[in-house]
Amino acid sequence: MTQGSASDNMNTAKNNPNFSGLLSTFRALKYEHLLAGISGGVVSTLLLHPLDLLKIRFAVDTGGSKNQASYTGVKNAFSTIVRSEGMSGLYRGVTPNTVGAGCAWGFYFLFYQTIKTEKQRGNSQIQLTPTDHLITASQAGILTLGLTNPIWVVKTRLCLQHELTTSSTVDKTKYYSGMGDAFKKILKYEGVRGLYKGFTPGLLGVSHGAVQFMAYEELKTSYNKYRHQPIDAKLKSSEYLLFAAVSKFIAAVTTYPYQVIRARLQDANCTFTGTRDCVIKTIKREGVGGMYKGMTPYLVHVMPNICLVFLIYEKIANG
């Protein structure tokens, strides 16, 4: 291909409406939101990973497997893990968790703010409806889940490893020495499908982020209108923290069961055939309370977590 023909083709592509629309979309991306989201996700995860580990272990405890550790409470779980696995046991899966949280929050804020800006036609003072926020957050959540689900599968598997490599009973296809080894073995023995286990309940979990962002945006907008300020006016750190905590609590209480189902499906020792089977058997064996296992460490974990994420995000993205 000559230089002239290459230039002509490029000019033709630029004049193509679809290509122009794609360029316009990329130009509209606000990459400061990506950086701010990554920063918030990484910092909060490094500080609070042990609580996330407990949430996962409580969630997969069906009470009927010899391969699963069983804890009587948060305090007992901490002491048991430290005694049997050492302090490092509290940080199993921290690498994929940190990578996953950074990517997830970065992509989520990037997609959310880009879609929101498009709906506001570039004017941040145009007020969107609660439905607009819900739909925007759902779209951002689906895009983010598609990119990050493999990381969450690896994180869950590493968090649930209790066996020692020297044990003769360990299934070597399900024991991972680290994040890279986990990706390789899951792909080798389970295929791409293995990296997308828990994707269906994860889609249901998109509602969690949607409810949370809708509540957060509505709280900020209502508060700014109450004090007769523009809806995009900056708030104090304490106000960001309060609205983040309240919105997270609302979302957590209404959507937590999906996390139990997703964790159980992503467990290497999973015996459920799918989401429906998991829900039916969990309620049958453990009652409705089984759908809320791990709720206490989850709330203890997510409240400071979400406050850190949103505060760091707001300070970096909005100055």
Shape: globular
The CATH architecture category equals Alpha/alpha barrel
The total of beta strands comes to 0
Portion in strands:
under 5%
Profile the largest sheet.
none
Helix share bin: over 70%
Please give a structural write-up.
The protein has helices at residues 3-15, 17-28, 31-59, 74-85, 94-119, 130-159, 179-195, 199-226, 237-255, 257-266, 275-286, 295-318. With 319 residues, it is an all-alpha fold. The protein has a single domain, classed as Alpha/alpha barrel (Mitochondrial carrier fold). Helix 5 runs antiparallel to helix 6, helix 8 runs antiparallel to helix 9 and helix 8 (199-226) packs antiparallel against helix 10. The mean pLDDT is 83.
In short:
By secondary structure, the protein is mainly α. The protein has twelve helices and no strands.
